[in-house]
Amino acid sequence: xxxxxILKKVDHTVLTQTAKWEEVKKICDDGIKYNTASVCIPxxxxxxxxxxxxxxxxxxxVIGFPNGYNTSNVKVYETLEAIEKGADEIDMVINIGWLxxxxxxxxxxxxxxxxxVCGDKILKVIIETCLLTxxxxxxxxxxxDKSGADRLRNx
Length: 155
Known about the structure:
This protein is α/β, with parallel strands linked by helices. Helix 6 (104-118) crosses helix 7. The protein is built from seven helices and six strands; from the N terminus they run H-E-H-E-H-E-H-E-H-H-E-H-E. The chain has a six-stranded parallel beta sheet with strand order 1-2-3-4-5-6. The chain has one domain (3-153): TIM Barrel. Helix content is 48%, strand content 16%. Strand 2, helix 3 (46-53) and strand 3 (59-63) form a beta-alpha-beta unit. The longest helix is centred in the last third of the chain and has 15 residues, at 104-118.
């Protein structure tokens, strides 16, 4: 696989708490220049970024970021708003506390609810592997596989 093929699979990302429009704009420019899969940016910049890049680049944003503690209804609303503002892809964070509590059905239902409102948009599930046991990682792979989400994303 060459460099260009790799870049087509990379989400160029800026999700720091201090990210300003100039930083978001720069990664959008880089994403176009290097033909990345998308740029992943804070939800508050989705509409501005989509207007800036048009159809030249996919815009991805995060839902329930960074801790995943939002209620499922809030995550669904965040997803709907992000798509309305122009998001092409959604990266959602699972509720890690639910995983630790073995609330597997709740996690699966939440992912399904978000995928339902995503429609044909790509949904990636962030599982924060650094906080999980090997058993929990395996369980999340099973849940994501059953949920209909498009991809699993570890962080």
